[in-house]
Each structure stands twice: as C-alpha cells, then as structure tokens.
Amino acid sequence: MSDILEEIVAHKRIEVGRSKLQKPATTLYKEVEAYIEAGRHEVISLSDRLRKSDSGIIAEFKRRSPSKGWIKESGLPDVIPPSYASHGASGLSILTDEKYFGGCQEFVKTARPLVGDTPILRKDFIVDEYQLFEARLIGADVVLLIASDLEQEECRTLAHTAHELGLETLLEIHTEAELDYVGDDIDMVGVNNRHLGTFHTDVATSFQLASLLPKDYVLVSESGISQPQTVRELRDAGFRGFLIGETFMRQDDPGQALGDFIYSLKFKV
After folding, report:
1. CATH number, domain at 115?
2. In terms of residue numbers, what domain contains 204?
3. What is this structure's pTM?
4. Contact 156, 183 (CB under 8 A)
C-alpha cells in the first residue's frame, strides 16, 4: 500500500477499535440477528440489477475526497440518493468514511427507506468483520472489499462473513496481480481507475484489465467516468456496472445530471 492508503487504513483500524469500545461486538451481533429475524430489510441484489440494466450506473453520494477537498459539503442523504433512485440509478454508492470522505453510516440509514428497491453499496475501507455487521444493520445491500487494503486470506474471510449476513460483495482491484483475490463469495469485480495512493485517475486501467477479468462475474468500472461514450466503450469491453460520483455531485442537481447522462447514454445524444 502507498502512503495515503496506509494512512487511511491505519486510521480505519483505530476507528473500528473505538467503535468496539462504544458498542462491543457481541452487542452489535445480537442487534443484527434481531434486525434480520424481524425482517427489517431484505437485501437487494446489485449484481442482478447490473446484469439486467441497460445503463448500469451506480450513482455515488460522495461529498468529499482526500485529494480535492469538499465536492458538495451541503449534500444531503435524504435528497440526493432518493433523487438518484428516481432518475434511474441501477444502484447507489454511499460513502460512510467521515475523516477522509465526509460521510457517515447514518447516511445509509437515512437513505434506505427513501430509495425504494434500489440497492445500496456501503462504500468504505472494510478491514474488520465488525464493519460488515454495521453495514447490515444500517440497511446496506453490498460491501466493498479493496484488495489493496487486505491480505488474500483476510479478504476471503470477510467475503464469506458478508455472504453469511446476506450481503453482496464488490471486490475492488487495481492491478493484474490482485486478480488472485477473486474467488468464492465475490459477487462483482470492480476496477478502480483511481490509484488510491496517488489519486491519479485513468479509465485506461479498466480497458487494460478487461481481457484478464473473469467473465462469469459482474464487472464494474469505478471512477473517472464522465462521458456516456466511455460507458458504451466499457460495456463493449465486458463491464456491466459503472460507478460515477464526482461527475454528478459537482452539478447543482446531481439527480437530474444522472437522468441527463442516462438519456444521452441510451439515445447517443
């Protein structure tokens, strides 16, 4: 891992430790068990939505980035995610990291009842199974597992636990070497076009890895996508999901910007 990613992950482990002091793991696990038994939220499959969608847009609620600062500090979780859902998003990605991305878990909890049957990805740096239980309790449907953050066995264990909780998994890779992380309990494989250490973004990363990616998984291209034509080209290369955040969040009305993007994508405007 590069320096900034090491910093983020180190802080995340400290953060999880603090959470465990506030709410012991045994308490959280019992809450999740009761939540599931009560049928509070039936997990919705993002991978299935992406297979069936003709756009495949995963619209991201991202208020801040470590490299660019605030993108939309005033963005509200009860406004933008529901607007994304009503404008045709196949799925939603909601940042829950507070220190570096200006998010929080409450954003998912707030959005969940307002977005209907649109699946939600908890976007964070998952380093402990405790976070998987948190994700289930706040109403997420999918969790992100970043290969760069984890040892292979650690990743496999987390993916297995996520499946036991009913959650889907999106494995994020950046290099050919990280393809070794693909395996059981992975539902989707994502290529992040943004290097998490340097924050340099290049969609060419997705195209370079496209022919090497396993075709029996739903493939997702993440970050740096700003034009409908790029989505068309990525779809031709085998991708079915396209995670887009800043392109929409920098607009006055992110939901309408998504709607316009999908219209252009469908009708080649």
Report:
1. 3.20.20.70
2. 3-267
3. 0.95
4. yes
